[in-house]
Amino acid sequence: MADVNVVVEEISVMIDEELDTTSNAVKDRRGELREENATELSVGQVVEFTRHAITYTGEITRLTDKRATIEVLDASGELTLSQLDCVVVGNADAPDDDGY
Fold first, then answer.
1. Which CATH number does the domain housing residue 73 bear?
2. Can you give the residue range of the structural domain that contains 67?
3. Tens of pLDDT along 37-46?
4. pTM
5. Nearby residues of 68 by Cβ (< 8 Å), 6 or more positions away
6. Does residue 54 belong to any structural domain of this protein?
7. Are strands 45-51 and 87-91 parallel, antiparallel or unpaired?
8. Which of 23, 26, 30, 58 could covalently link to 72 via disulfide, CB atoms 3.0 to 4.6 Å apart?
9. What's the rounded Cα separation, in Å, for the pair 57 and 99?
10. d(CA 100, CA 94)
11. pLDDT of 93
12. Are residues 58 and 28 in the same domain?
């Protein structure tokens, strides 16, 4: 992985055309990561995510190309967030450790 400080330093001296090219490369990479992660997510999966330094657990209730709607299990309410922020921890339909 490139040294981030070097990348930031290079960006600070770029002209408009170079910034556009760099910005497009970052957008393309984000899209690739989103696609990789999206293939792992499905409605009914239990995921964890962090908001405001608190880690929540919830069940995916809806998916779009970029976002997941999560029914928060350890608090009341529903949140919609980027699929990139979700980490799969289980399946809501799976039995507990004791088989129930």
1. 2.30.30
2. 45-91
3. 766 788 999 9
4. 0.54
5. 41, 47, 60, 62, 80, 81, 82, 83, 86
6. yes
7. antiparallel
8. 58
9. 21
10. 9
11. 67
12. no
